[in-house]
């Protein structure tokens, strides 16, 4: 579900005023100083909260701010483009600009806000008509887009919900440029409350499989995540009106579902020869976290860490990203609804929203590197990407004091009213000694064969974790990080102090 808390604004044009002075012929008269160049980008100026640039009048400076439900694509012009839900900190929904926000970046660190997909507030007309004709009032704001390129055509799938539960539409717009103009092509999936086993028709993601078939996955709450086949030529539903079979759901405590399930993201990793389906669990402002299942076919079944079908009515792991808190920081919650993509070298990344613990109404863009465990599972860096390379870390550099986070989880059935706590996973001390032992809140032994650090805990648990260079965002300095899964499928993170 997209954020009822974020609000957005009407686009106000920025007026450039040219001040023209009258030139004087007197040699001793002072000349007008040239306009100073914009300040150079400084990663240290990226903040957790952003009250100064939050208003709509400062949208040109939003960059990594006011980001929710991002979808990222690398375009032919060398930029990464990001499309995201209509949100804005402190801005009422009635004032927000509808249309889906657009940003771009060359390096995944410095982002430039470039506008909106739709500039007509009545767009998208087809989605709005579907809802209106069924007695609903469509939302002003658009949610959770997805973008891919097919041939020379960019295809953007949007989500439009309404004042009625389940009355929603996923539509398609196309363009020849990542900045548009975008033209509506049709409705892909529509939902309503006309029967059982219907999920909310929002949160699309698309995969082109190894046989060239196109599949769209979608869903939020209700009946979980569904899949439909698309017509590759048009990008629309291969069977008009088809809502497709369910491919993922989650568990229940008594009669109550353990929390929300939504926001699928699907990729194929050719090195692993697997399809990976990323899914978000729980409430978007607090416990929001990312799970993943994998399959040999885009049709599934997608299996969890234990080899269980994620379409069974139970909670599934691994959970690879969840609210966390390192020392000296308020922590990050709401860490889900991800976009997963690769650069030209095949390095995968995850983009998602993060909400600072100090004020969880702010919405910040996080981009993290993805690494792959020896058993073929994706894991994410405990710190945001900052341009660091993948060069091997020397064993001698590992010894010393670290902070470790284990991504444990507490089930709290329900949604916003019940999930009022982020369930932060807090860092604990870890010290790696040169003699191959470690201590802190846990003890054990360690060995290292770059890039794999194997932690063997005294309780019998072992965790082969991947060591990389990283940035300590909490302390604004370079550091070393590790990430991986233990033998139970629990994510284990570390950051050197």
Automatic annotation (TrEMBL):
InterPro entries in alphabetical order:
Abn2_C, GH43_arabinanases, Glyco_hydro_43, Glyco_hydro_beta-prop_sf
Q: Which organism is it from?
A: Hymenobacter bucti
Q: Where is the signal peptide?
A: 1-26
Q: Which PROSITE patterns match?
A: PROKAR_LIPOPROTEIN
Q: What is this protein called?
A: Arabinan endo-1,5-alpha-L-arabinosidase
Q: Which UniProt keywords apply?
A: Glycosidase, Hydrolase, Signal
Query: Which residues fall in a coiled-coil region?
Result: none
Q: What SUPFAM superfamilies does this protein map onto? A: Arabinanase/levansucrase/invertase
Q: Which protein family is named in the record?
A: Belongs to the glycosyl hydrolase 43 family.
Q: Which domain of life is it from?
A: Bacteria
């Amino acid at each position: 579900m997209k954020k009822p808390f974020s609000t957005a604004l009407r686009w106000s044009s920025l007026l450039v005023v040219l001040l023209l002075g009258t030139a004087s012929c007197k040699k001793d008269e002072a000349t007008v100083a040239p306009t100073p160049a914009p300040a150079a980008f400084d990663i240290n100026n990226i903040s957790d909260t952003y009250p100064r640039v939050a208003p709509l009048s400062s949208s040109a400076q939003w960059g990594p701010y006011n980001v929710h439900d991002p979808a990222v694509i690398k375009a032919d012009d060398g930029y990464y483009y990001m499309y995201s839900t209509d949100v804005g900190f402190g801005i009422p929904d009635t004032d927000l600009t509808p249309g889906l926000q657009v940003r771009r970046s060359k390096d995944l660190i410095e982002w430039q806000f470039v506008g909106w997909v739709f500039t007509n507030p009545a767009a998208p007309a087809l989605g709005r008509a579907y809802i209106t004709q069924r007695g609903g009032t469509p939302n002003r704001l658009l949610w959770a887009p997805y973008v891919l390129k097919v041939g020379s055509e960019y295809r953007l799938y949007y989500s439009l919900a309404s004042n009625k539960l389940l009355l929603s539409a996923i539509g398609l717009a196309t363009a020849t440029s990542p900045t548009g103009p975008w033209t509506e092509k049709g409705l892909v999936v529509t939902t309503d409350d006309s029967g059982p086993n219907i999920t909310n028709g929002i949160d699309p993601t698309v995969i082109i499989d190894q046989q060239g078939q196109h599949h769209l996955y979608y869903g939020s709450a209700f009946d979980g995540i569904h899949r439909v086949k698309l017509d590759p030529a048009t990008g629309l539903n291969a069977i008009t009106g088809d809502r497709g079979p369910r491919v993922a759901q989650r568990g229940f405590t008594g009669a109550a579902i353990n929390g929300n399930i939504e926001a699928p993201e699907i990729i194929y990793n050719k090195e692993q020869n697997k399809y990976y389906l990323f899914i978000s669990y729980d409430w978007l402002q607090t416990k929001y976290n990312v799970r993943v299942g994998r399959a040999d076919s885009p049709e599934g079944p997608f299996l969890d860490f234990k080899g269980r079908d994620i379409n069974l009515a139970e909670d599934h792991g691994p959970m690879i990203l969840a609210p966390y808190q390192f020392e000296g920081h308020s922590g990050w919650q709401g860490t889900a609804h991800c976009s997963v993509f690769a650069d030209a070298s095949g390095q995968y990344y995850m983009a998602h929203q993060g909400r600072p613990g100090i004020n969880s109404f702010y919405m910040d863009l996080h981009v993290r590197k993805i690494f792959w465990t020896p058993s073929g599972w994706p894991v994410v860096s405990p710190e945001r990407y900052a341009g660091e390379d993948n060069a091997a870390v020397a064993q001698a550099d590992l010894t010393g004091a670290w902070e470790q986070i284990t991504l444990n989880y507490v089930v709290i059935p329900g949604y916003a009213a019940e999930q009022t706590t982020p369930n932060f996973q807090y860092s604990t001390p870890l010290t790696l000694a040169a003699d191959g032992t470690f201590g802190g809140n846990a003890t054990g032994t360690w060995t290292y064969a770059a890039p794999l650090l194997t932690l063997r805990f005294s309780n019998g648990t072992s965790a082969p974790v991947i060591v990389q260079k990283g940035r300590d965002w909490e302390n604004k300095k370079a550091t070393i990080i590790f990430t991986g899964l233990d033998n139970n499928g629990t994510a284990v993170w570390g950051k050197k102090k």
